[in-house]
Amino acid sequence: MSIFFSRQCEYAIQGVLYLALKPQGEMTSIKELTKRLDIPYHFLAKILQRLATTGLLTSAKGPTGGFALGKPAKEITLFDIVEAIDGSDFMDKCVLGFPECSGKNPCSVHSTWGRMRDEIYQMLVSKNIAEMAREMKKPEYRAAAG
Amino acid sequence: MSIFFSRQCEYAIQGVLYLALKPQGEMTSIKELTKRLDIPYHFLAKILQRLATTGLLTSAKGPTGGFALGKPAKEITLFDIVEAIDGSDFMDKCVLGFPECSGKNPCSVHSTWGRMRDEIYQMLVSKNIAEMAREMKKPEYRAAAG
DNA sequence: TGTTATTAGGACGACTTACTCTGAAACAAC
DNA sequence: GTTGTTTCAGAGTAAGTCGTCCTAATAACA
Question: Is B10 in CB contact (< 8 Å) with chain A?
Answer without folding.
Answer: yes
